[in-house]
Design a protein that fits this description.
It is found in: Membrane. By secondary structure, this protein is an all-alpha fold. About 75% of the residues lie in helices and about 0% in strands. It contains 22 helices and no strands. The longest helix is centred in the N-terminal third of the chain and has 35 residues.
Length: about 525
């Protein structure tokens, strides 16, 4: 069956492609496996029913994570572009309006890239610090006072050299990878980084399992509390974890799928990516809680008496304290922080590829020019915003709003517009089924059009109410307004302005492949 793209479109430069299915799967897993797998899942599972949490977690994976992943794949692959390009082509008569949704997702990725890079820089620093256990006996004080030099909420230009230098290095490597393009940049980087990450983390887990108290740590994590399943918040936590872990609903998988060949199986690899990501999360849970069990044993307390079991606190305060007490701690620290840096980096390049691809297509730039432009601007903003004494607080607040408001809103808006307003569910379902081995049916449309908007809509509304009523982390209201709601405003402004700018080459001269029943074309008004 021939490619149905119009002749005028065929004169354009060929679209970049992954070298094959394996290359795509490796890159997609690299995107999904990130910081949250290591520092978020174990604590979330522990706090929400332990072993019983795996039940709502699996339900959330099957009813929301995989369906939205397939939706992203279908959009990107059928309409062959970055998020703005794909949404514009999908929109038909409303193409320009829907393009703004694509730019909304790009803007989210842009903002996340600014601070995500900083955490990787911290991990690189702590990888070096692990050789001589530089944090000493006060891991908390070292991180906040000696390393980050955290000051009061505000905006400072007092740069911290220990953050600035590795941050610059991370940005240089990131720009080089993006400039290499899809096959020679992103795929090649993931091809070496993902195996190294897996080997290093497996070594860490094996070492942790032989520590004194490891069994108590695993019991604390996996002992099921089935009574917790009656709490709706536990189920919301499961959907939240799956949603943030799979790199869905903010342009990454739309962009990645657009680089697949026309005749490409989408759903089979999607299942591999989803379950590989979840498998790594469970592996991370084993490694983290075996180590926490050792820490509790050394302190002579129960695991439930420990503090800082998730996020930045777990990684840069609790784990260094554990490493200081552990036989062969230097090696363990290198493995942990090296794994953290690699997991973060493979996700970072996917986040920034969303932005680079969109800019490349909108303004007709080469791969290298787009990478340098996006990377250069991002690096400057990242350095000025997050490598100073106020960087930690700004990072924490922007992350909360970008993820819990920005990404969730993007998912809710996308599913409602595509499935209810434009009614494109059957077309996207049939596209998946026309080229994939694992078929989806009406149940997929129900999940994407009904269950996902309800669950994520509840998450979004409840989180917004909490942020407005209770604030966040005891920070001043003016600070949360500036860096929290201000980040959301910046995302919206970028989406509007980018949509209004003219295209270097119109993306509208396009016809999807494969050809589907005539009524789909009539619904688009084509």
């Amino acid at each position: 069956m021939a490619d149905a793209t119009p002749q005028s479109a065929q004169t354009r430069a060929p679209r970049e492609q992954w070298t094959g299915q394996i290359g795509f799967i490796i890159a997609a897993i690299g995107s999904a496996v990130g910081l949250g797998n290591i520092w978020r899942f174990p604590g979330v599972a522990y706090e929400n029913g332990g072993g019983a949490f795996l039940i709502p977690y699996l339900v959330a994976l099957l009813t929301a994570g995989i369906p939205i992943l397939f939706l992203d794949y279908a959009i990107g692959h059928r309409f062959r572009g970055s998020a703005p390009t794909a949404f514009r082509r999908l929109g038909g008569r409303t193409g320009r309006g829907l393009e703004s949704l694509g730019w909304f997702q790009v803007a989210i990725a842009f903002v996340i890239g600014l601070y995500y890079t900083v955490v990787i820089a911290w991990a690189v620093s702590y990888f070096v610090f692990s050789f001589d256990l530089r944090w000493g006996d006060d891991a908390v004080g070292f991180f906040t006072a000696d390393y980050l030099r955290v000051s009061e909420p505000g905006f400072s230009l007092d740069f911290v050299p220990g953050v600035l230098i590795p941050l610059v290095l991370v940005w240089i490597v990131t720009i080089i990878v993006l400039a290499g393009g899809v096959a020679k940049g992103l795929q090649r980087a993931n091809t070496w980084a993902l195996p190294v990450l897996l080997v290093a983390f497996l070594a860490l887990v094996v070492r942790a399992l032989f520590l004194d108290g490891a069994a108590e740590g695993l019991n604390a994590l996996f002992t099921p509390d089935f009574a917790a399943l009656a709490d709706p918040n536990v189920w919301i936590a499961a959907y939240s974890q799956i949603f943030f872990s799979l790199s869905i609903a903010f342009g990454i998988m739309i962009t990645y799928a657009s680089y697949r060949r026309r005749r490409s199986n989408l759903t089979g690899p999607g299942l591999v990516v989803a379950f590989a990501n979840s498998s790594f999360e469970i592996l991370a849970g084993i490694g983290v809680f075996a180590t926490l069990g050792y820490f509790a044993f050394q302190q002579g307390v129960a695991v439930d008496e420990l503090d800082r079991l998730t996020g930045v606190g777990l990684s840069f305060m609790t784990f260094p304290a554990i490493v200081s007490q552990m036989p062969g701690g230097a090696l363990f620290g290198c493995l942990f922080f090296g794994s953290l840096a690699l997991a973060g980096f493979t996700s970072l390049v996917s986040v920034l590829q969303v932005v680079s691809a969109a800019v490349q297509e909108k303004f007709g730039l080469s791969v290298r020019a787009a990478a340098v432009s996006v990377g250069g601007v991002s690096a400057v903003l990242s350095i000025f915003g997050f490598s100073t004494t106020t960087g930690l607080l700004a990072l924490d607040v922007v992350d909360q709003w970008a993820n819990n408001v920005g990404i969730v809103a993007s998912a809710v808006i996308t599913t409602i517009l595509l499935m209810w307003v434009l009614r494109r569910g059957p077309e996207l379902r049939d596209h998946l089924n026309a080229i994939s081995t694992f078929k989806v049916g009406r149940s997929w449309i129900f999940l994407v059009s009904v269950l996902v908007p309800i669950v994520l809509g509840y998450m979004l509304i409840s989180r917004i109410i909490t942020l407005i009523v209770e604030g966040y982390s005891g920070l001043p209201a003016w600070y949360l307004t500036l860096f929290g709601w201000g980040a959301v405003l910046v995302i919206v402004v970028i989406a509007v302005v980018a949509t209004l700018l003219p295209w270097r080459r119109s993306p509208d001269d396009f016809r999807p492949w494969p050809e589907l029943p005539v009524h789909y074309a009539k619904e688009r008004g084509s």
